[in-house]
Hints:
It is built from nine helices and no strands. By secondary structure, the chain is mainly alpha-helical. One of its GO terms (molecular function) is G protein-coupled receptor activity.
Amino acid sequence: MGMIGVMNCSHMQRPNGTERGAEPVFVSVYALVSVAGIALNLFALVVFIRLKFRSLTVVYMTNLALADLLLDCTLPVRIYYHLGYDGVPQKLCEVMGVALLVNMYGSILLLSCMSLDRCVAVCFPMSLCVREARKKAGWICCGVWVLTVGTSLPMYFGSTSAQVKCFHSFPVYATQTAVMASTLTVGFGIPLTVMLVSSWGLLRAIACSHAAQTELDGRKAQRMVATNMIIFLSCFLPYHLTLWILYLNQDSISCLQLRAFHYSLMVACVNTMLDPLAYYFITETFRKKVPALNT
């Protein structure tokens, strides 16, 4: 592997290494996501915990809400940093970076599992094998946590550039072929394929149904699938595209490319605020149980 060529982006930095022009954007977005994300995900967790009968889908939703909440709780550190304050230890920055990666790939895998689970439940409602497999949702979630934490730790710790510190560090893992291959395939490509195929299968099964509410259910399912896919691609595709660009141009990385990477990380964090709106509040079970909190 060749030497990493990162330009001296003096127009992006203050003497202490922070981005002068980008700070208000980062601070505003992270503040909004932190406040809204913590409130929405805490509310969702309260509803899930108080459910007397938890469906298998709720198991995935609970883990997704927990992952989102953990990342939302780390965002105040990023806000403090982007306000221009010094004194954030590099190791703390790395811990925050690991939290972001764990949330991102935990969310991606959990969302793909939810999509597949929903598809097989509709397409194969009478299959005994499918029913038994779906009962392992708890173990699948445990596997997702182990996989994301186990792969994020070595991927991030000790792999930051000495040229720019903390949240403006260059992601050295973007230059490692094995890491990039697994990230773009296992971490994004395969889950995206699962979501696309599962969404198609779900819509096709509903379209072929002869139930009385087929037309109405079909329109609702189309809106749900479209909303979920738009949020998924909007939040996670920019990060993986910029990561791929950094890998292809690792010998001569421009300031624009590095800036785009940091913005893409910020966009990925917005997912924690959108998940509750897209996956919890649109479900019949969730909306029916919300009034129970007031009793």
